[in-house]
Amino acid sequence: MEHSIRTVEDAMTLSADEYTVIDIDLTQFNLQIIEGDVSSPTLSYPVVADQADAAHFELEIEEKDSTLRITEIQTNEGRRWMKRNLKIRGKNDVVLTLPTDFPLESIDVHLSMGSARFRQLDLAELKLDLSMGGAVLSELTAKAVDIDLSMGSLKLENASLTSGSYNLSMGSIEGTATLKGEQRLNCSMGSINLRLAQDPAKLDYDLNTSLGSINVDGRRLGSPARQSHTAAEAKIDATVSMGSINLRFD
């Protein structure tokens, strides 16, 4: 793939070649990376109601060595535009839609404030660094996940994750998933509520909470709560400083 850089203003749709790596850096926007009915990767984002303000929002799109980089450009105009975000028509979303069975390997996202949603993707690696907001992994399959949330919640919707590290300063981890390999979950202030679609006899866990309760399939346990099997397919190492841990199995 040839090296090209494009500065994009206003709203448009971008169609490009295949990528194996996607790197995104945004400040105050909601991000979605989803599978959809498109023939090639398509990027879209909001339209400013007053076209005189359209130049206040810019994204830089870089395509190089099978990598797509999307970076928000910080300008004085951009900062003024953020203060007038009520001029945005509809949701303040940046949406990257990928074709079915797109050969993507990894996603690396840095988001200062907003939400992130990843839907119907099959990845080798997902990295997310989010200062304030929430994240949703919906029907996502990933071999490795590394998520850091300073303030916000992580929701899993039928996710299949082989190994992962999830660190939340203030917020919760909840939803439905199938977990394998080593899974490390840490919440300083919040809770962990997971419904797991797997055999509990093949799951090891080490659960700890300083101020809160631990429940595994309806059984209230003390802290630390541990279970170990010789043929375990997964291990959950979960720590909550202030809050509860609840695991249920289907």
Can you give a write-up of this model?
This protein has 250 residues and is mainly β. It has a domain at 1-23 and 37-104. It has one helix and 24 strands. It has one helix spanning 76-83, and strands spanning 4-9, 14-15, 21-28, 30-35, 42-44, 58-64, 67-72, 93-98, 106-113, 116-119, 122-132, 135-138, 141-151, 154-161, 164-170, 173-179, 181-189, 192-196, 203-211, 214-216, 219-221, 225-227, 234-242, 245-249. The protein has a 24-stranded mixed sheet that branches. A hairpin with a 2-residue loop joins strand 6 and strand 7. The termini are far apart. Residues 1-11, 51-55 and 77-90 have low confidence and may be disordered.
Summarize the structure.
This protein is mainly β. The protein contains one helix and 24 strands.
Write the layout of secondary structure elements.
Layout: E1 4-9, E2 14-15, E3 21-28, E4 30-35, E5 42-44, E6 58-64, E7 67-72, H1 76-83, E8 93-98, E9 106-113, E10 116-119, E11 122-132, E12 135-138, E13 141-151, E14 154-161, E15 164-170, E16 173-179, E17 181-189, E18 192-196, E19 203-211, E20 214-216, E21 219-221, E22 225-227, E23 234-242, E24 245-249
Parallel strand pairs: 3-7, 3-9, 4-8, 4-10, 9-11, 10-12, 11-13, 12-14, 13-14, 13-15, 14-16, 15-17, 16-18, 17-23, 18-24, 19-23, 20-24
Antiparallel strand pairs: 1-6, 2-5, 5-8, 6-7, 19-22, 20-21
Supply the helix-strand structural class: mainly beta
Rg on CA atoms, Å: 20 Å
Share in β-strands: over 45%
The number of helical segments is 1
Helicity level: under 10%
**How far apart lie the N and C ends?**
45 Å
How can the largest sheet be summarized?
Answer: 24 strands, mixed
Which word captures the global form? Answer: globular
Given as residue ranges, the uncertain stretches (5+ residues, pLDDT < 50) are 1-11, 51-55, 77-90
